[in-house]
């Protein structure tokens, strides 16, 4: 079930009931919980906030993210060209990279090192100026979904907003050697703000594709996180909630196909990796171990009672964090 659109996450000290809400909850001010804590407030020790913007097109798979993990901030960007198999990536990690007063919504300005994300008149502008130059423009569409999910212990909730099939324009200059570009409804927004469990696991799949009857489809699936509540299928912009998903994988994750199916039988697919991003961070107060293969997908999807084959481009992830 998708509940009607809401504008405010927290009212009179209480957050919205757990559930999936139509479109974006634009006001996600969390200062009531952030100020709690004995030595360091929960804004530093428990609240995690990030924007990830992915592009999954026939020409390019690329992405940019800025993450405020409280005690540490990080940002990364990457791209892969299907034409010449070029893969480049970069990242930055800074302690206390955002101020203690940083309490963002999706349309706030995010800036860390060479990374900048800002929204002007409903259009999102993303920029990375480092070992290569990446520019992305994305238009807001009303097809997204906001999820208010349970956490663990005394952590009140985890909020996430997902929107796929977003119109986007991408320009990349790879050190003056090559230029890459793509445009179309290939964008994916992941905005998360909340208090996830101290130890967090997930498998995640995000892709955009087309069916044999030329319907535009997009999928976001997660297992073992957010109560499996963010499993959504978009067909020509129309959202359908999917059941829990089963991820089947084997080592090495970046060299072997992943099989994914939903228990309701609506989706069955496999991803063939073309490459992967990965991280193995083991710091004093936090760990982040993940691998995120990217590549091509094919499979079947049931739309209006009829099964169709589809092809797509996207990313999949195996993730473990202690934060």
Write the layout of secondary structure elements.
Elements: E1 2-3, E2 10-11, E3 14-15, E4 19-22, H1 31-34, H2 42-45, E5 48-56, E6 60-68, E7 72-81, E8 87-95, E9 110-112, E10 115-120, E11 123-129, E12 133-139, E13 145-149, E14 158-174, E15 178-194, E16 199-211, E17 216-223, E18 232-235, E19 238-241, E20 245-248, E21 258-262, E22 267-282, E23 287-303, E24 306-322
Parallel strand pairs: 1-4
Antiparallel strand pairs: 2-3, 4-13, 5-6, 5-15, 6-7, 7-8, 9-10, 10-11, 11-12, 12-14, 13-14, 14-15, 16-17, 16-24, 17-18, 18-19, 20-21, 21-22, 22-23, 23-24
Outline: globular
What CATH architecture label applies?
Beta Barrel
* The CATH fourth-level homologous superfamily: AttH-like domain
CATH topology-level fold name: AttH-like fold
How many distinct beta strands?
24
pLDDT < 50 stretches? none
Sheet/helix structural class = mainly beta
Q: What value does the Rg take, in angstroms?
A: 19 Å
Name the beta content range: over 45%
CA distance, first residue to last residue:
31 Å
Main sheet record: 13 strands, mixed
- CATH class wording: Mainly Beta
Number of domains: 1
């Amino acid at each position: 079930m998708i509940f009607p659109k809401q504008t405010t996450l927290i009212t009179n000290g209480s957050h919205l009931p757990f559930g999936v809400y139509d479109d974006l909850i634009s006001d996600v001010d969390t200062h009531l919980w952030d100020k709690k804590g004995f030595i360091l407030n929960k804004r530093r020790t428990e609240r995690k906030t990030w924007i990830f913007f992915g592009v999954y097109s026939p020409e390019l798979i690329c992405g940019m993210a800025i993450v405020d993990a409280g005690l540490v901030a990080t940002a990364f960007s990457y791209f892969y060209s299907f034409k010449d198999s070029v893969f480049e990536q970069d990242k930055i990690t800074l302690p206390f990279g955002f101020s203690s007063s940083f309490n963002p919504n999706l349309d706030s300005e995010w800036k860390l090192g060479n990374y900048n994300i800002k929204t002007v008149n409903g259009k999102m502008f993303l920029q990375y100026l480092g070992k290569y130059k990446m520019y992305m423009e994305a238009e807001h569409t009303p097809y997204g979904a906001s999820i208010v999910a349970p956490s663990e212990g005394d952590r009140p909730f985890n909020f996430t907003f997902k929107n796929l099939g977003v119109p986007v324009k991408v320009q990349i200059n790879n050190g003056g050697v090559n230029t890459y570009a793509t445009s179309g409804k290939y964008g994916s927004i992941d905005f998360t703000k909340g208090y996830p469990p101290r130890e967090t696991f997930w498998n995640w799949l995000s892709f955009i594709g087309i069916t044999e009857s030329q319907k535009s489809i997009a999928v976001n699936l997660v297992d073992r996180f957010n109560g499996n509540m963010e499993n959504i299928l978009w067909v020509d912009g129309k959202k359908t909630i999917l059941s829990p998903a089963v991820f089947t994988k084997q080592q090495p994750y970046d060299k072997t196909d992943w099989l994914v199916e939903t228990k309701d039988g609506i989706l069955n697919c496999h991803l063939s990796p073309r490459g992967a991003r990965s991280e193995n961070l083991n710091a004093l107060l936090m760990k982040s171990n993940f691998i995120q293969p990217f590549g091509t997908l094919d499979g079947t999807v049931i739309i209006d009672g009829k099964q169709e084959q589809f092809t797509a481009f996207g990313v999949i992830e195996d993730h473990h964090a202690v934060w």
